[in-house]
Structures are given as structure tokens and as C-alpha cells.
Write a structure and sequence with these properties.
The structure is a single chain. By secondary structure, the protein is mostly helical. Helices cover about 60% and strands about 0% of the residues. The protein is built from 4 helices and no strands. Helix 1 packs across helix 4. The radius of gyration is 12 Å and the shape is globular. The two termini are about 15 Å apart. The model has no long low-confidence stretch (mean pLDDT about 90).
Length: about 70
């Protein structure tokens, strides 16, 4: 398993958002969260794993049933 740094994660998240042509308002509506949570996550100021899971589901076209954050 390869461990990625936080900067690499931010780049990956931004690439996924750009390739899916998503706006922060789209993520807000789908996850029913505030704009500040989304913008802070996308800027790397705060980690919010449900956004990452949403992006993975959208990017790969799969539905993740369960996950836990260790």
C-alpha cells in the first residue's frame, strides 16, 4: 500500500473535482453540508472524509456501502 502525503491528496481531490466538472455548490447539495465545510476541505484547511467518499463514488461510478476512518 502506498502512503500519500496531504499535498498529494489535495491535488488528487482537485483533479477529481475538475474532471467531474463539479462545483462546490453541487457537493453542498448532494451531501447537505454548508459551503464553508466544502471550501475548507477543497483548500486543505480541514479534512472532511464524506467529501472524499462522495468524489470517489462519483469518479469511479461505484457505491460504497460502509467505511470507517481509522
Amino acid at each position: 500500500m502506498v502512503t500519500i502525503t496531504y499535498d498529494q491528496k489535495l491535488i488528487l481531490v482537485r483533479v477529481m473535482v475538475a474532471s467531474l466538472d463539479l462545483k462546490s455548490s453541487d457537493i453542498e447539495k448532494q451531501l447537505n453540508i454548508s459551503r464553508s465545510v466544502v471550501s475548507r476541505h477543497l483548500r486543505g484547511e480541514r479534512d472532511y472524509p464524506p467529501i472524499d467518499m462522495f468524489l470517489v463514488e462519483q469518479f469511479f461510478g461505484v457505491k460504497i456501502k460502509e467505511y470507517s476512518i481509522a
